[in-house]
């Protein structure tokens, strides 16, 4: 399926694509949680836990007990994505598994896809952290574009809205349609992820200050 900015806007199709995308976002953060855990705090188990999907850990409490603020940061971000995804599925009656197996919906989920998946196993804990922050920044930009499209009711997002992406903080969300529930939900998620991104960056700053 070839996507175009000139495609007629379809709310349900748009949200189903977004739902599939958010599922991938959640899975991507889970991989970061897993690798951060077994590359540092539980490094001695790293040889046995290389693949987050072959040795899947379903219990979030396992990671919450890991003594690493970066892992906890990831868990918070993952929780935001799960909560949003569950609300979206409920509102639009989305069957998540079916949509992830639907080539049309998967293609639709790439309409505003910006972030790139990273092969995390080959990277050290130290090198993986900036990739995590870039991933969060990609999520934020991606979700913001959906909020802009919903505000414009068009896949061809007006330039005045696209320019908002470069503004700091909540200024990037200033022109959104505050009366649209779908937009409001994305806005809340974006604000939360921005907070997580800033918290992750502050961890680096505090470590640098301690070394001085």
Structure description:
- The longest helix has 31 residues, at 11-41.
- This protein has eight helices and no strands.
- The protein is mostly helical and 212 residues long.
- The protein has one domain.
Mean pLDDT metric: 90
Low-confidence stretches: none
Number of domains: 1
What's the number of extended β-strand segments? 0
Largest sheet data: none
Instruction: Estimate the global geometry from the Cα principal axes.
Output: globular
Distance N terminus to C terminus? 54 Å
Following the backbone from N to C, one meets helices and strands in this order, namely HHHHHHHH
Helix content: 55-70%
Throw out a few tags for this protein.
212 residues, mainly alpha, 8 helices, 63% helix, 0% strand
Write the SSE topology.
Elements: H1 11-41, H2 60-64, H3 69-92, H4 96-100, H5 103-108, H6 125-152, H7 159-162, H8 181-211
Helix pairs in contact: 1-3, 1-6, 3-8, 6-8
Concise description?
This protein has 212 residues and is mainly α. It has helices spanning 11-41, 60-64, 69-92, 96-100, 103-108, 125-152, 159-162, 181-211.
């Amino acid at each position: 399926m070839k996507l175009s900015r000139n495609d007629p806007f379809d709310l349900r199709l748009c949200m189903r694509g977004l739902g599939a995308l958010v599922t991938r976002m959640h899975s991507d953060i889970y991989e970061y949680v897993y690798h951060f855990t077994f590359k540092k705090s539980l490094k001695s188990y790293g040889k046995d836990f290389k693949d987050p999907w072959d040795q899947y850990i379903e219990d979030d409490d396992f990671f919450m007990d890991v003594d690493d603020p970066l892992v906890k940061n990831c868990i918070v971000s993952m929780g935001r994505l799960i909560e949003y995804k569950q609300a979206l599925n409920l509102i639009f009656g989305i069957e998540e598994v079916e949509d992830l197996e639907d080539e049309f919906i998967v293609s639709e989920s790439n309409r505003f896809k910006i972030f790139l998946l990273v092969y995390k196993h080959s990277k050290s804990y130290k090198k993986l952290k900036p990739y995590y922050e870039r991933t969060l920044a990609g999520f934020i930009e991606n979700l913001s574009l959906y909020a802009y499209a919903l505000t414009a009711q068009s896949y061809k997002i007006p330039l005045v809205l696209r320019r908002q992406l470069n503004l700091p903080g909540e200024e990037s969300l200033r022109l959104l349609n505050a009366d649209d529930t779908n937009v409001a939900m994305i806005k809340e998620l974006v604000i939360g992820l921005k907070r997580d991104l800033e918290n992750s960056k502050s961890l680096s700053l505090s470590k640098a200050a301690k070394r001085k």
